[in-house]
């Protein structure tokens, strides 16, 4: 379902040159498979998810989701493809504060160009245990409830792939398991593949498949970071 091959990604650094972040020879994920991506802070886990989602572009390599290589699509087509086929749950939920729970979920549908399906949005909010909170705005919801709305929003377009970037990082320990259980059960029943980034050993121990992402070329990265810092120091010193 997802096939990443020979993926390389770097960022431009202020002092010139590029900072290599990702070098992933192969990552294959089956339909409805659930796996955890682990790795030390800064090794590129978020960058990997963002690249798979087409929110940032790869330097080289392919990212096939079904028959489509998202890395080769032009930006507008990538955005449309993401809206239709990929769900994303962020650490910080990213709900719109002026909209109710149901509106936040339905907003996820507006980018696909298809008709907004209120019944589907209500059904998902029901399934995440928020059927009685449809008209509450994020400020009137607990942190765990906000993340449950974000889960419903990520799944509303029936994606084939759900990307979850440390979805429990801002949730109190008592409710973290609830979010993980929710993600897993909805993905299972809807046959959605899930890539979950987590630092938590308790969470990763629950998954059959855990992939370790290694930091790329750390010596070169360190040298480039230092060059970038040196360049920004020099720029600051030259500022009148
Ligand atoms: N837009 C950007 N421009 C330049 N460098 C970036 C950019 N975004 C991220 N980086 C750098 O890329 C590296 C990987 O960042 P990323 O957020 O993917 O790591 P991570 O593994 O998710 O880290 P963490 O576990 O701490 O969240 C970091 O060194 C970061 O500073």
From TrEMBL:
The keyword Nucleotide-binding applies. SMART domains: AAA (SM00382). GO terms for cellular component: plasma membrane. Keywords: ATP-binding, Nucleotide-binding, Transport. Residues 2-240 form the ABC transporter domain. GO terms for molecular function: ATP binding; ATP hydrolysis activity; transmembrane transporter activity. It comes from the Bacteria. The keyword Transport applies. Pfam families: ABC_tran. InterPro entries: AAA+_ATPase (IPR003593), ABC_transporter-like_ATP-bd (IPR003439), ABC_transporter-like_CS (IPR017871), ABC_transpr_LolD-like (IPR015854), MacB-like_ATP-bd (IPR017911), P-loop_NTPase (IPR027417). This is ABC transporter ATP-binding protein YtrE. It comes from Botrimarina hoheduenensis. The gene is ytrE_1.
């Amino acid at each position: 379902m997802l096939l990443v091959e020979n993926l390389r990604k770097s960022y431009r650094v202020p002092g010139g040159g590029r900072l290599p972040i990702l070098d992933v020879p192969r990552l294959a994920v089956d339909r409805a498979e659930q796996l955890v991506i682990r790795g030390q802070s800064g090794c590129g886990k978020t960058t990997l998810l963002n690249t798979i989602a087409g929110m940032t572009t790869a330097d080289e390599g392919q990212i096939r989701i079904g028959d489509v290589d998202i890395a080769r699509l032009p930006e507008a087509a990538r955005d449309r493809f993401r809206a239709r086929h990929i769900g994303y749950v962020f650490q910080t939920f990213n709900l719109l504060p002026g909209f109710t729970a149901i509106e936040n979920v339905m907003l996820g549908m507006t980018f696909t160009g298809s008709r907004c399906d209120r019944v589907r949005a209500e059904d998902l909010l029901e399934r995440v245990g928020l059927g009685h909170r449809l008209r509450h705005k994020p400020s009137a919801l607990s942190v765990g409830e906000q993340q449950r709305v974000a889960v419903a929003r990520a799944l509303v377009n029936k994606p084939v792939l759900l990307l979850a970037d440390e979805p429990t990082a801002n949730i109190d320990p008592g409710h973290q398991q609830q979010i993980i259980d929710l993600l897993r059960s909805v993905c299972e029943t809807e046959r959605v593949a899930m890539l979950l980034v987590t630092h938590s050993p308790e969470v990763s121990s629950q998954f059959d498949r855990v992939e370790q992402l290694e930091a790329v070329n750390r010596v070169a990265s360190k040298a480039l970071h230092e060059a970038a810092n040196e360049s920004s120091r020099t720029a600051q010193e030259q500022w009148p």
